[in-house]
């Protein structure tokens, strides 16, 4: 009588099929995990960019809403306008007020600042240690934002049109003249654009006069 042997275990084909199924499930699981991690990283990056954008726009608004009609002098004896966009090193430069007045400080709570975009796509804020620099001074810069493609400033001219130049072309203005309205545009490297519309400060000639009324008006603006 022949004995019938029963096979116990898996055949080679069954093992290969199981390995293939396990490999497919592993790949799908890894892709799903990678997608979740990538989404989390992009969310964190977007969140940080939003925080950075809010901080930068807050600083910009604080600077531009405190414009002051005060021209400055450089170390060569030349004069800089209170607000100008013609400096080749900066997108815009101006004198701002609204800062605390320190006793013994003749600046009256004012400061000269400027903005530019670096070659590393950084939005830079420049600050002068003095308003009138009779000697060469070191200008301090702070990075407000990264991944900035461009930063543009437009001013409202006499024809109620926004243009990049200040003083506007074909207009004769004093060195202390300020725009009536300003539009800021920040374009990120990904194409996202942020716009802010800021009302300017009306230029009052009496502010620059040497009488008591003018000095009082200047103190009120600095406060």
Number of alpha- plus pi-helical segments: 2
Strands of the widest sheet, in order across it, are 3-4-5-6-7
Beta-strand portion reads 15-25%
* Total beta-strand segments: 11
Largest sheet: 5 strands, antiparallel
Characterize the quaternary organization of these chains.
single chain
- Spatial gap, N to C terminus: 115 Å
As a percent range, the share of helical residues equals 25-40%
The class by helix and strand makeup works out as alpha+beta
Q: Note the run of SSEs as H and E.
A: HEEEEEEEEEEEH
Kindly state the mean pLDDT as a whole number? 80
| Uncertain runs | 204-223
The coarse overall form would be elongated
How large, in whole angstroms, is the Cα Rg? Answer: 31 Å
Notable traits:
alpha+beta, 4-stranded antiparallel β-sheet, 2 helices, 5-stranded antiparallel β-sheet, 223 residues
How would you describe what is shown here?
- The protein has helices at residues 12-64, 212-222, and strands spanning 72-73, 79-80, 83-84, 92-96, 111-117, 123-127, 140-145, 148-156, 162-163, 181-188, 193-199.
- By secondary structure, the chain is an alpha+beta fold.
- The strands form 3 sheets. The protein has a 5-stranded antiparallel beta sheet. A 4-stranded antiparallel beta sheet has the order 9-8-10-11, with helices on one face.
């Amino acid at each position: 009588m022949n004995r019938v042997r029963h096979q116990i275990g898996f055949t080679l084909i069954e093992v290969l099929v199981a390995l293939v199924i396990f490999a497919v499930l592993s790949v799908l699981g890894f892709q799903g995990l990678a997608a979740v991690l990538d989404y989390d990283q992009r969310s964190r990056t977007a969140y940080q960019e939003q925080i950075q954008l809010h901080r930068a726009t807050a600083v910009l608004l604080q600077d531009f809403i405190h414009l002051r009609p005060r021209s400055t002098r450089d170390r060569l004896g030349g004069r800089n306008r209170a607000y100008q966009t013609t400096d080749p090193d900066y997108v815009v430069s101006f004198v701002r007020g609204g800062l605390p007045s320190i006793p013994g400080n003749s600046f009256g709570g004012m400061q000269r600042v400027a903005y530019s975009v670096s070659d590393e796509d950084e939005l830079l804020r420049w600050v002068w240690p003095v308003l009138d620099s009779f000697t060469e001074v070191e200008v301090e810069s702070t990075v407000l934002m990264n991944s900035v493609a461009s930063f543009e400033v437009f001013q409202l001219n006499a024809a109620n049109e926004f243009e990049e130049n200040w003083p506007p072309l074909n207009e004769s203005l004093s060195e202390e003249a300020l725009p009536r309205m300003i539009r800021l545009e920040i374009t990120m490297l990904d194409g996202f654009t942020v716009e802010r519309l800021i009302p300017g400060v009306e230029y009052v000639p009496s502010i620059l006069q040497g009488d008591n009324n003018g000095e009082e008006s200047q103190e009120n603006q600095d406060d």
